[in-house]
Predict the structure of ornithine decarboxylase.
Amino acid sequence: MTPKIARFLTEQKPATPCLVVDLDCVRGQYRALHDALPSSRIHYAVKANPAPAILKELNNLGSFFDIASPGEIDICMKAGIPAQKLSFGHTVKTARSIAYAHQKGLTLYAFDCIEELRKLAEHAPGCEVFCRLGVLNTGAQWPLSRKFGTTPESAFTLLQQARDLGLKPAGLSFHVGSQQTSTEAYGDAIAQAAGIYHRLRQQGITLDFINMGGGFPTYYNSPIPSIDQFGKAIATAMTTHFPEGAPRILLEPGRYMVGSAGVVHTEVVLSSKRGGGDNTPRWVYLDIGRFGGLAETEGESIRYTFQTPHDENTASRSPCILAGPTCDSMDVLYEKNLVPLPEELKTGDRVNILATGAYVSTYCSTGFNGFPPLDEHYI
Amino acid sequence: MTPKIARFLTEQKPATPCLVVDLDCVRGQYRALHDALPSSRIHYAVKANPAPAILKELNNLGSFFDIASPGEIDICMKAGIPAQKLSFGHTVKTARSIAYAHQKGLTLYAFDCIEELRKLAEHAPGCEVFCRLGVLNTGAQWPLSRKFGTTPESAFTLLQQARDLGLKPAGLSFHVGSQQTSTEAYGDAIAQAAGIYHRLRQQGITLDFINMGGGFPTYYNSPIPSIDQFGKAIATAMTTHFPEGAPRILLEPGRYMVGSAGVVHTEVVLSSKRGGGDNTPRWVYLDIGRFGGLAETEGESIRYTFQTPHDENTASRSPCILAGPTCDSMDVLYEKNLVPLPEELKTGDRVNILATGAYVSTYCSTGFNGFPPLDEHYI
């Protein structure tokens, strides 16, 4: 936790549950990524956290933005971001969404199949398009399904069809999986993209960019490579696979940019063995759970770090099952990977959940069990 | 789909995605349950769908209500329901929530451990309490975890401690699991509760009721027992295990009451093989998914029925992967259990998802990917 967040919690004593985000930290992440890959263009993935304070901060630093819906276009434009700095990186869009984006002035769109390409040609004529490749997600802690992306052969054909439909074939994209902890994942994907790039050049199509999506990790509870290491791996692969000069790199970081900047401040609702014997784990119920924003604990994929008021006394820790506040029995955060917490932890204690700036505020349900959406503080 | 909903969709052509609920159907469900177990008291589980129109309808029919938070207390009281008709059936409550409920006039509370009992004694002195037992969930399609409930031995002790703390030990509760399709599940749980009931009588404590929670199923795509069959199984078990006269039955139906009354009306955003060969399944993307309210498709647990405009032509169906509209790759509804859909299905077609009245509107995220919460129509 940053000193600024610690001070805010001490002085303001905000009601729980809430999310507190340190904007200095977001700024630091942007600059570190920019320094690691200076010639790249950064499109912040708005879905990770669309708070206006974050959007304005990144806009001032020169960031571009990737959006997923008309709703996110509106949020960005309301934050003062011009349409020219927005890419529509979602491959699946209603015709209405495309027409809306086109009318607002967006010029760059993703796709991964002929049906979507035809929609783009009809509703955003003349726009720039990039085709998403399906790549392996080895090494990602939140790997992506087969929901998006196509084969190299299909991408090669589709980008030519794009030209025939009057669109501008501008790039290729891929996503190595969210919370990607292997720097090598990028090299393989870049090699694949380069193959298509060179074949398309022979057809008279020169792509402007390779969009490497997001995936850069946030530190949760196990070591991750530095952003410089990712930068070096990417730069090396680009030099190797584009010996005659590489196209521009586009990046769509979401989790990387805001994950470490946020802390969820929560309260213990109940801590009890509930009739189990001495050797059974305690159940600790917090006032935030899977339906209050911590959706990425599904399958116990993302494993957060917890800070309690009793952390000095490390000797007294015992393994706990952690659950959320709703009366939905699926609302359990960790049951297989027990969390060691101090024996002294009791009802009413405040607990901080670190690195929760991304994919928390928006996953929150509208009011399941009558609990209101998460309070947010951007400082 | 009821004729009333069909007419509404044809005449009103509402924007998608939306939920349409037929209140006549809710009324029918209430009456059928009341007829199946005439002496029971029905506490509608507000979390299943807290729409004011549903609450008012059930209140007029004589229903009681089970709530899970101060937010749900407020919703109910605003709908004109008196505090005396509300039970706080959630075993995990903040001290503030208990104090709030007590101040509003609620008198009946659940618990399953000594820590919660002490909170109740302090913040709702003199209240009636019931202890939740953990029971097997065999036969449930949405089985509950070990998050709630205690052992029979512990319940026996706790209800005596409740008396010692100045509270009124009023009942035992259990939950056989949501979407329970076996009528036998209730018999075993009733036997267990009866054992504790008789032992407590010897200690001078006579419980008023056995609360059998919810669990009665909604028809999705495979046959379920009728509510009369459940009623008979429960009545028989009560006579068997309470030969000298049974305590009152309390029921907390949620899904049963509203599930079959609702239809989600959605639009096809994209239908494509996305570069796969002829033998690969199509991907069909709808404008509602796991983050727009269909959270119970997690693990493909609840399998809905889909109606399309091309259903006459059953010969042309082929298996599809069904996905939601967000650019989150976890937002896939069915990938293992492919859904046979007409070959003619295309972008822009309207699709109805049946029996979606429960656990949809409130699971919806506040705005993930910039998509607004689900529109709701109660007719």
Chain B has ten helices and 18 strands. The domain at 260-378 of chain B is CATH 2.40.37.10 (Lyase, Ornithine Decarboxylase; Chain A, domain 1).
